[in-house]
UniProtKB/TrEMBL annotation, chain A:
Location, primary (coarse class): membrane
Domain ABC transmembrane type-1: 68-259
Gene Ontology BP, a term: transmembrane transport
Membrane topology value: Multi-pass membrane protein
GO CC terms of this entry: plasma membrane
Superkingdom of the organism of origin: Bacteria
Keywords: Cell membrane, Membrane, Sugar transport, Transmembrane, Transmembrane helix, Transport
Localization in the cell: Cell membrane
UniProt-recorded name of the protein: Multiple sugar transport system permease protein
Similarity section: Belongs to the binding-protein-dependent transport system permease family.
UniProtKB/TrEMBL annotation, chain B:
Keywords linked to the UniProt accession: Cell membrane, Membrane, Sugar transport, Transmembrane, Transmembrane helix, Transport
GO cellular component: plasma membrane
Keyword rRNA-binding tagged: no
GO BP terms in the entry: transmembrane transport
Membrane topology: Multi-pass membrane protein
Descriptive protein name: Multiple sugar transport system permease protein
Cellular location(s): Cell membrane
Chief localization: membrane
Family: Belongs to the binding-protein-dependent transport system permease family.
UniProt source species: Allostreptomyces psammosilenae
Transmembrane segments: 31-53, 93-119, 131-148, 181-203, 235-255, 287-309
Pfam families: BPD_transp_1
UniProt superkingdom: Bacteria
């Protein structure tokens, strides 16, 4: 192949890729487009936001701002719980060679197959008994379950590669197992911890089912539940609904920008390995 | 737990195993090691193990809206099972679940594979576009569903506007409001959501295939289709199985998307096992019958769990899992 035809092929491929991108991301564009156009509720939306305004965002923030904060708190809490549980467990599974360790790895894989609605079904009864229904803590604990198996599998896959000698060296210097873990293993695993944490955050932020089933009042209402109820009540106010949708997509967009190169590796590592 | 310190787990160093101090130290070390694991294991028992067991028990109990005030849920034998399995809505939901899952997997996988193969070529901006294509998968599912609800609106939705402008339809398609197309519409939206995930994992799988095999196939004079069938597909099989099984498990229990798009309607046209469990338990407050449908879901997932684990083993066998 000559250089010019190769260049032409590559240009053609880029053009095709951009068309694919435009088609597949059209709904995302339309979400932003609608959010930027006030007063489009009953008429059809025009293809370009010719006179963009933040009016819809103002309205979305005033009605959904509290829910966004709830989501932020719940997702941060769930991420913390998830990492606190997953990091030491992954380390033990990767490095200690405990008998029964394989069974636990197996069990972790199995948990990914338990339907969420089944968990909610049983959890509701337990939550009533424990007075965790309509509680912040209850939702944080439930949402942590969404990211935990993935975090364990991902962190374990990373920690397998940490040489045992590094930890042993720290222990020879007088550190205990725990000290060695905190001051040697965790810093070495920084990137893996960030990836696992970002996914745990995103899973909890996206949660709808636990928010829907474990709350019977409006006390604890994440943005996903807020938007769901919003379309029930304000179905004619699509501009504000789309503005709320844009606001609730910010973590996804941020994850894509911040952790772009970890995301693909994370998904592949967590599911295939 | 202390039994783990006995037996072959103890490093058989001469003289060491008979020394009681060393043995005690070893036992303490093992206990400490289990301490690292215990919180996560206890949590998983509480949030995965307990619900599994509790659902089986609940499916034999009679729950009423009053149960959570009185605490009374007497056992009622097979009543819940008989009621659910005898309800025509269950058969309908099972059938919808099957169509929705099969349709979703077929669409997600073929489009995902086509895109993965396309992005395996080297061209400017390829990596960036591939990364940005992940966005639909990362957005909360309820949010995607709400956006699509707007897009698919019969009167003001842009999908019908485009179809009409292209002369593909003359009058607006009632995507979400007609029982005959609603399930198709929901499936199409789910395909859209699943494409990025399929694409990313299959792309990874394609990268693992040694380039020499393609060169050898080209030397043997194999065409594109022949190369795809004899080189790509067989070598991609372990990864493809994992993608399909993971896709199956997330699709078969789908709840968020369907609730936000159609609430199971119109006329139960998009009612699936996931939404039926939710409706029985949390809307009709008959947690016993909800648990029955939930158990059917678990059973279906368990069958595929076996396939998944076998696929994983094949995976390790070929060295791709490491």
């Amino acid at each position: 192949m000559t250089t010019t035809t190769r260049r032409a092929t590559r240009a053609r491929d880029t053009a095709i890729a951009l068309v694919v991108l435009a088609v597949l991301l059209f709904p995302v564009y339309w979400m932003v487009n609608t959010a930027l156009q006030p007063g489009v509720d009953l008429a059809s939306t025009s293809f370009l936001p010719t006179s963009p305004s933040l009016e819809n965002f103002r309205e979305a923030l005033s009605s959904q701002g509290g829910n966004l904060l709830t989501s932020l708190g719940v997702a941060l809490g769930a991420t913390l719980v998830c990492l606190l549980l997953a990091a030491p467990a992954a380390y033990a599974l990767a490095q200690f060679g405990l008998r029964g360790g394989r069974g636990i790895v197996f069990g972790t894989l199995i948990t990914q197959m338990v339907p969420g609605i089944v968990i909610a079904n049983a959890l509701y009864g337990a939550y009533v008994d424990l007075r965790l229904v309509n509680s912040f803590l209850g939702l944080v604990l439930a949402d942590a379950s969404l990211g935990l198996p993935f975090a364990i599998v991902l962190l374990r896959a990373f920690m397998v590669s940490i040489p045992r000698e590094v930890v042993e060296a720290a222990m020879v210097d007088g550190a205990g197992r725990l000290r060695a873990f905190v001051s040697v293993v965790l810093p070495m695993s920084r990137n893996a911890l960030i990836t696992a944490g970002l996914f745990a955050f995103l899973y909890a932020w996206s949660d709808f089912m636990f928010a829907l089933t474990l709350n019977t009042t409006d006390d604890i209402k994440p943005i996903t539940l807020g938007i769901y109820e919003y379309i029930g009540a304000h179905v004619s106010d699509w501009g504000a609904v789309m503005a709320a949708a844009v606001l609730s997509s910010i973590p996804a967009a941020a994850l894509l920008v911040l952790a772009q190169r970890y995301v693909a590796a994370g998904i592949t590592g967590g599911s295939v390995k | 737990m202390t039994t783990t310190t006995l037996g072959p787990a103890v490093t058989p160093r001469p003289g060491a195993a008979t020394d009681p101090d060393r043995r005690r130290a070893h036992r303490r070390a093992t206990l400490l090691q289990w301490g690292f694991l215990a919180p996560a294991v206890l949590y998983m028992l509480a949030f995965f193990g307990y619900p599994l067991v509790r659902n089986v028990v609940m499916s034999f109990q009679h729950y009423t809206p009053r149960t959570y005030f009185t605490g009374e849920a007497p056992f009622n034998g097979l009543d819940n099972w008989r009621a659910v399995l005898g309800d025509p809505l269950f058969a309908e939901a099972l059938w919808h679940t099957l169509l929705f899952t099969a349709g979703s997997l077929l669409g997600q996988f073929t489009i995902g594979l086509a895109l993965a193969a396309f992005f395996s070529r080297r061209f400017p901006l390829g990596g960036l576009v591939r990364a940005v294509l992940l966005l639909p998968w990362l957005i909360p599912m309820v949010v995607s569903a709400v956006v699509w609800r707007r897009l698919l609106d019969q009167e003001t939705g842009v999908v019908n506007q485009i179809l009409e402008a292209l002369n593909l339809t003359s009058s607006g398609v009632p995507w979400l409001s007609s029982p005959s197309v609603a399930l198709l519409a929901v499936t199409l939206v789910n395909i859209w959501i699943g494409i990025p995930f399929n694409m990313v994992i299959l792309y990874g799988g394609l990268q693992e295939i040694p380039r020499e095999l393609y060169e050898a196939a080209a030397l043997d004079g194999a065409g594109a289709w022949r190369t795809f069938r004899s080189v790509t597909l067989p070598l991609l099989r372990p990864v493809a199985t994992v993608v399909l099984v993971l896709g199956f498990m997330s699709t078969v229990k789908m709840l968020d998307l369907i609730l936000a798009l159609t609430d199971g309607g119109p006329a139960n046209a998009t009612q699936t096992l996931g939404t039926q469990t939710y409706q029985l338990s949390f809307l009709e407050l008959d947690f016993g019958q909800g648990a029955v449908v939930g158990n059917v879901l678990i059973l279906i997932s368990a069958v595929f769990a076996v396939i998944y684990l076998r696929a994983n083993r094949t995976d390790f066998g070929t060295g791709q899992g490491k």
